Cyanate hydratase (Yoonia sediminilitoris), 1470 residues
Amino acid sequence: MMTKEDVTAMILSAKKQAGMTWEDIADKIGMSPVWTHSAAMGMNAFPPEKAALMVTTMGLPQEAESVLAESPTKIWEQAVPTDPCIYRFYEIVGVYGPTLKALIQEKFGDGIMSAIDFDMSVTRVENPKGDRVKVEMSGKYLGYNSW
Amino acid sequence: MMTKEDVTAMILSAKKQAGMTWEDIADKIGMSPVWTHSAAMGMNAFPPEKAALMVTTMGLPQEAESVLAESPTKIWEQAVPTDPCIYRFYEIVGVYGPTLKALIQEKFGDGIMSAIDFDMSVTRVENPKGDRVKVEMSGKYLGYNSW
Amino acid sequence: MMTKEDVTAMILSAKKQAGMTWEDIADKIGMSPVWTHSAAMGMNAFPPEKAALMVTTMGLPQEAESVLAESPTKIWEQAVPTDPCIYRFYEIVGVYGPTLKALIQEKFGDGIMSAIDFDMSVTRVENPKGDRVKVEMSGKYLGYNSW
Amino acid sequence: MMTKEDVTAMILSAKKQAGMTWEDIADKIGMSPVWTHSAAMGMNAFPPEKAALMVTTMGLPQEAESVLAESPTKIWEQAVPTDPCIYRFYEIVGVYGPTLKALIQEKFGDGIMSAIDFDMSVTRVENPKGDRVKVEMSGKYLGYNSW
Amino acid sequence: MMTKEDVTAMILSAKKQAGMTWEDIADKIGMSPVWTHSAAMGMNAFPPEKAALMVTTMGLPQEAESVLAESPTKIWEQAVPTDPCIYRFYEIVGVYGPTLKALIQEKFGDGIMSAIDFDMSVTRVENPKGDRVKVEMSGKYLGYNSW
Amino acid sequence: MMTKEDVTAMILSAKKQAGMTWEDIADKIGMSPVWTHSAAMGMNAFPPEKAALMVTTMGLPQEAESVLAESPTKIWEQAVPTDPCIYRFYEIVGVYGPTLKALIQEKFGDGIMSAIDFDMSVTRVENPKGDRVKVEMSGKYLGYNSW
Amino acid sequence: MMTKEDVTAMILSAKKQAGMTWEDIADKIGMSPVWTHSAAMGMNAFPPEKAALMVTTMGLPQEAESVLAESPTKIWEQAVPTDPCIYRFYEIVGVYGPTLKALIQEKFGDGIMSAIDFDMSVTRVENPKGDRVKVEMSGKYLGYNSW
Amino acid sequence: MMTKEDVTAMILSAKKQAGMTWEDIADKIGMSPVWTHSAAMGMNAFPPEKAALMVTTMGLPQEAESVLAESPTKIWEQAVPTDPCIYRFYEIVGVYGPTLKALIQEKFGDGIMSAIDFDMSVTRVENPKGDRVKVEMSGKYLGYNSW
Amino acid sequence: MMTKEDVTAMILSAKKQAGMTWEDIADKIGMSPVWTHSAAMGMNAFPPEKAALMVTTMGLPQEAESVLAESPTKIWEQAVPTDPCIYRFYEIVGVYGPTLKALIQEKFGDGIMSAIDFDMSVTRVENPKGDRVKVEMSGKYLGYNSW
Amino acid sequence: MMTKEDVTAMILSAKKQAGMTWEDIADKIGMSPVWTHSAAMGMNAFPPEKAALMVTTMGLPQEAESVLAESPTKIWEQAVPTDPCIYRFYEIVGVYGPTLKALIQEKFGDGIMSAIDFDMSVTRVENPKGDRVKVEMSGKYLGYNSW
């Protein structure tokens, strides 16, 4: 059986050959770049029509369509990531986690920001002192139930 | 010697008595709520004039001023945070970390988003399906050196 | 400042002296036993009117009221619990976790059961071969967003 | 020798080709969906007659029958699961573990809920505010021996 | 409130002063030495009448009686014990664990030996080549449920 | 070179085909079932004449004889075992480890039970309330040296 | 697709056959030995013209050029390195980490030395009591932002 | 007995009151700032005459002299440091550890850089693009023995 | 009750005041320095007559005598020690552990060196290239039982 | 390319076929058994002439000569070894580590025993109460630098 790993490898290979960026691919299937990359890596499931579009866009074999639409099991192996680019985000959670919690409670009450009903974007912001990476996340507020 | 933990306890107590929010305190000292909370928790150093303002705003003893201005040692004890509100951000780094890395490289080249020359905000976005938490981060892009 | 730990200790002491069960306390404040115990342990926040009721029911000092209503930081120190009664639930998650995931996806699609918009009960079911513990959990289904 | 992993792969492949759900398979062999999935994943042993039924239902090779009936060694590799759907159950054990223990003791005495003489179901409960996942577990109460 | 730790300290002190062995204490309360030590350490709950006997035998304050009867939370802090005497038992589980499992399955079917409905003894066996420690455990066989 | 893993696989396959139990094999080579299983799993070395008997009993290739007689390196990968049948023994060490130590010291002095000069058996004990697993271990007492 | 691991293996093989040192290779491509080794190991990305030079210098297949220029994911598997030569550097960070932090703050203010805008060299310093290894690191100072 | 922790606290307090930098203190006792800070933190032992100088310079009680001269036990509690300033050095060891090893072997043979016969300095290097932190380490080369 | 930690602190204090070395103390009680230090640290039990000698030698209170004679629980908190002097021994076990095992098996058969019936010494060996630390360990060979 | 693992496998196979002991091999190449085994396992580098001797002695292919002479990367995967024979040495470091440190400091000053300029032997010592394993280690004393 074809696995999500197999399809990810095919996508990466096709992307390199075609010289496309993730932004290009995202545009072709009408989704955002963050979500598109994540789903292509096997960390999100493609809705059926997007799976079909992905197969045509990247020239994948037909069997890949159902694989792209399967629910993934999200596994990461490093509890503390070592890659410096990813570690910096881990560090931000370590340093500012209690702050995010305190401000969410101040603005909403006792609850959390959903990581499921969630979206995110990455943009480049020009700046004379050096361009900046801007990351925007938005998740539904979920208040704790009392019963 | 007075420690940062001592001063944090005094701030929390004064804040409760005064019925102030972090937003109120941040306004009073002319800084953002995220930074203000984080520095009050002892995770960032107050610039001298902000330390002085903090002392008057919260009615802290004079000795607190120099303590607020000291460089903190940033320690968190849970490599994987258990509080659900903080864990969701950890989970986002686990699931989307490779995506953030891929898009930063696509837009900037081989490098990272700084977690030092960095700022962040939390806002409440009204939404008929349930209000949303919006988190915006911005950090300077730092490209790897080759030498 | 009075902490959640202080109030928990007061509740346990008052409960012992009064010879009350968690079920009794829950009845008095009009909440379920699971939620009541959890909130009394400092793992959930009492809504204001329940905090007030708790103070009268257990004869706590007035200051406890606001402490009971504060948002808790949920911390557990053993990633793998050692107490046999708690470990068995950990074991169930280890053995049946992938099964719970597969069936939720089969019945709902790609998503999770919320642990925030969530409730739970524990009941005793008589059985000639030995009475049984019945645990019922219910959480809102949250489908992953694609964007 | 054919292993449980081999048979699991065959079942998943046959299930996909046949377009069956776990509920369909469970019905065919007269067992519950939770148990059927778990046993098919190699986490439980099929009683001989169920192993035989499974072989016919899924069109497996004859050798699979004895493999399905073997006692499994239950191994999970992530002490803290990363998949969000499974993590939420881990989180429930972390947050409510002491509560489950306290209420079991209140209702039964000093003991545990068995995870061996145990059953579980997952159902979808319709709800105007969003359908809910209902998980019901039942395990025999086992009281500690004193001797 | 008096805790189990407090009572354990009182028992150890009284035992030393009285020059009693665990065997002596066990005899006095009519229980086995293994169970008596374990319960005195706060790892098992005394049935009410044994708690009363323990209080008289060791000359404990009256309040200790209800503390001895409370259900303990069983916590050990070293996942791998360092004390050589305890480590050897850990090593036996590491080396012979799969063997114990295989033989239990051969003799009983798919299931486990209960660690709850369980008893254990330690005896000294004379031997010309050096006396031997004999440990006998017995636990109820619990077969896995299929449902 | 043939490894212990290779020989273990051959033994398991031959055992299945011959429909033998571990007890049968142990009888054939004149050793106990616990030791026989453990050595067959590669966790103990066969004395030369037992290795020869094992080769004839199970119909193994000649090369296996010297492999069975080699000293094994005893490795287990899970510091805390997840299989419920093995975990229960780990739990017993966690709960009763300090008790075993205290009673060994009471009966023998400051020392340990050897896990090297050691033997163990597993038997089924009939019991109207449910049959019981009986595990007996015996190891030489080793007293600490002072020098 | 050719991976960074593949290219690293080719470089090591070509280096051995040609009898070159890392210093020789670094000279040929006009970079420092530290950076050259690190990039050849797949821990840094070659700028395009250096990738081209590397391909000619080491006689690599053409496809290697684009692989050398890709952004690496920096992964190390041992949180605490075991090799004695690498461990000593880990030990230096453990022993002198707080000192490095204190002196950077004394000389610059609250901030860090960048590990991204960074360079390093290793030299041999002759010394009658035994030659010494000299390691020089230089990284841009980055001051914490307050906002 | 006065401990190294006690003396460190006295030094920090005296340093703050006197408004001295580590460089000032180092000058006064004729040692380098890196070594002085490290020894003051209790991570190195003061030679007797330096201990005496330290007592006079910082106005410490006489008993501190012998404490400063004691051999320390070097303990750090975070295997992976969380403070960003210290983490960056850990990251450098993770990324460049194998490179340091390869170049030391190329220049010296099979061996290591000593972390005991070792010295280090931190300097500020002016730079129009942003000043840089320069860290220089030097340790004696130690070649592996063969015997 | 006086604990082993209390007595260790008294010994260290008395030793400092008296200006004695471990060798001096060992001589006074007629034991080796390694054993004496270890027992004084609470890692070994003093035989009764040695406990009495220790009390007179160091001028300890009478109650210390029985405490010194108690069986210790041997606990170390760092699975991997950080102090460089202790780490080097850990490193030797990591690098040469399989070698020690292979040679013990070659010389004795399948078994181990006892760490219980064990003794050790540390001596200084003069050497023109730098004096050397000599550590000698001797433990009884224990052969694995087969049964 | 041939790796150290490949050569180790060839040596083990040749050793078995030739019926040689490590002592025999060590004699043939004029080195000690401890060092010879360790280097054959790939944990030490053969000096060129010893590598040549090893190739002739064991009948290895010519390419093995340069592989034996390469600097190894010393990796062990179990922070706490499970094999009982190796674990006992780990236990000795845990129990006696602080003692080794204290006596080295008493005899030499503040420093360590080198694990690099180091040698070790294993011998069998006859003893009527059971033969003993004698392990002798010697490493150069290295005193901490102050600067």
Summary: Residues 4-69 of chain E form a domain with the 434 Repressor (Amino-terminal Domain) fold (CATH 1.10.260.40). Helices of chain E lie at 4-18, 22-29, 33-40, 48-58, 64-69, 84-108. The mean pLDDT of chain E is 97. Chains E and H do not touch (no CB pair under 8 Å).
